[in-house]
Design a protein that fits this description.
This protein is of the alpha/beta class and 259 residues long. The protein is built from ten helices and ten strands. The strands form two sheets. Strands 6-7-8-3-9-10 form a six-stranded mixed β-sheet, with helices on both faces. The chain has a four-stranded antiparallel β-sheet with strand order 2-1-4-5, with helices on one face. Strand 1 and strand 2 form a beta hairpin. The structure holds adenosine-5'-diphosphate and magnesium ion. The site of magnesium ion has 3 residues, from helix 1.
């Protein structure tokens, strides 16, 4: 059984069809890539899976069950995500930014937090421990006490990843995880993503523009263009697909025209 199933999912913004009757499955234990030119609808797919927006048609199932709940419940059911544009509380410490993820998931109880009962203090300590472990896993423990404001972009991306990982989701959605990173950071992150799967058993669905990164890392790739799926398969299969080549060449021509 597929872990995540999209069936005929359509999202419209006014007259624009951002996602057009899209169907694809993500198998448990895989690193699955979702690629396509700018504006293809990839981030919209993530937003609809995390329930930030509702689809106009179609169905999404997670572990066989319809995913028609609120965003916080999506997190509780084991789906984590990062955003294309890093979203951190810039005035808070790195550790707090990671712990915030654990709090919003309801792992600690807000009312109890005000009362500071012993149980709450224990939970708070467990939350901090989990956050520290996750920062160590990502190699950024040294930043734990620093404010997120002004840290290098690559580090900020890792903090956001830590926030999602700290919840130990079973499925993690990564939207352009290496955008803005240098080649060394990109290579390291590819290793981290492999480790996320091997050590935590997580399934990964990622959107990424860096083709060599995607092709080296993913088991399976779904390609979108103008909201629709245009190709799917293993990295070599999609790389050789004339439809995919055409879509990306079209994008390069547009870029060239813009320059
Ligand atoms: P991608 O992530 O593949 O670059 P997006 O999913 O961000 O593409 O966007 C797909 C299309 O939907 C684009 O044309 C974009 O401008 C449009 N779009 C995305 N989000 C919104 C929104 N909240 N309101 C209106 N249009 C949107
Ligand atoms: Mg996007």
């Amino acid at each position: 059984m597929a872990m995540l199933e999209l069936q005929g999912v359509t999202v419209r913004f006014g007259g624009l069809v951002a996602v057009n009757s899209l169907s694809f499955d993500v198998q448990e234990g895989t690193i699955h890539g979702l690629i396509g030119p700018n504006g293809a609808g990839k981030s919209t797919v993530f937003n609809v899976v995390s329930r930030f927006i509702r689809q106009d048609a179609g169905e999404i199932r997670f572990r066989g069950q319809a995913l028609d709940c609120e965003p916080h419940e999506v997190v509780m059911r084991g789906i984590g995500r990062t955003f294309q544009n890093v979203e951190l509380f810039r005035g808070q410490t790195v550790l707090d930014n990671v712990m915030i993820g654990l709090h919003t998931a309801g792992k600690t109880d807000v009312l109890g937090g005000a009362l500071q009962t012993r149980r709450v203090r224990e939970e708070e300590a467990a939350t901090a421990k989990r956050a520290h472990e996750t920062l160590r896993f990502l190699g950024i423990a040294e930043y734990a006490g620093r404010r997120a404001y002004g840290l290098p972009y690559g580090v900020q991306k890792l903090i956001e990843l830590a926030r999602a990982l700290a919840l130990r989701p079973s499925l993690i959605l990564l939207d352009e995880p290496v955008a803005g990173m240098n080649p060394t950071e990109r290579m390291e992150l590819a290793g981290v993503i492999r480790q996320i799967r091997s050590e935590f058993g997580m399934t990964v669905l990622l959107v990424e523009h860096d083709m060599s990164f995607v092709m080296n890392l993913c088991d399976r790739i779904t390609v979108m263009n103008f909201g629709s799926k245009i190709s799917e398969g293993t990295p070599p299969e999609v790389q050789q697909d004339p439809q995919v080549i055409h879509a990306y060449l079209g994008e390069e021509e547009q870029d060239a025209a813009a320059r």
